[in-house]
Amino acid sequence: MRHLLSTQELTRTEAIRILDTSAQMAATQSREIKKLPTLRGRTVVNLFYEDSTRTRISFETAAKRLSADVINFSAKGSSVSKGESLKDTALTLQAMGADAVVVRHQASGAPHLLAHAGWLDAAVVNAGDGTHQHPTQALLDAYTLRRHLSGTGLEGPAGSRPDDAAALGADLAGRHVAIVGDVLHSRVARSNVHLLHTLGAHVTLVSPPTLLPVGVGSWPCAVSYDLDGTLAGHGHHGGVDAVMMLRVQRERMSGSGTGGGAFFPNPLEYARKYGLDARRLRLLDEHAIVMHPGPMNRGLEISAQAADSSRAVIVEQVANGVAVRMAVLYLLLAGTEDTRTATDTTIE
Ligand code: CP
What we know:
Belongs to the aspartate/ornithine carbamoyltransferase superfamily. ATCase family. By secondary structure, the chain is an alpha/beta fold.
């Protein structure tokens, strides 16, 4: 793997390798080995043209735990505001010796351009491009699903080590995930649909018709407008193992001053038809979990009761993101080394 740009490009073998490596990385953290020497001397640049809390901090933490040097570049306050192009920014990073560039950009396709234009020798990781892809979010979601659906949470079952084979989570094949809300603007939905399909899971998208993209019919998933029916298992694939709520992306919508893709829905109407609340939680099977990539609009796509319920794994998703991003950086920058050796080595 040279770059990580899209879940659509990942084979099942590559995806499982990342998820298994993530479990090994998580095991080092639970063994109180906070720092590995694996990427000592390497430089990871976080190149963020759009705001982020979770993804940027998570990549920074992951890179530091692998002993890489980290440069955080935010477009705000940089020469981008003076009109510097993506190409000239990339050439600057190349001159500074970046080994990996983690890029978030408002334009769909910007990471692909960085990876393939010949401006950089670095590995490029897509940290979210426009409405297109957010592959590490989908990977951390799959990692979280694997752990929960194999009967383990963050700690694993009593007596198990988090890197035991059973705790890794065997398989998502045949599992059913509902992805609910603003699919039109969601790179998280696109990345998850493709990754979950590759891993053999069934996905049902539940969304108002106005927030579904043109061409969704060709995606490898089912589509429904009936949230209650989907959660209660009335759809083709039966009950859901997880419900993943999507943020309503006001900033990409008309009437917000910046957007243009769709009109911002009436909040009360939206919450009534497509929000996850306490009543809808009761429709779920006992084992089903509630996910959200964050940041959440509490009271819109998810109520406070649902977000804070015992079924919600939203904070755990964030924690799992560090292990997954450690795995991605490790596989891109040192992936020919033996993973066990890399994760068994500590530094003072
Ligand atoms: N889930 C996610 O991408 O969150 P941030 O925008 O805070 O990075």
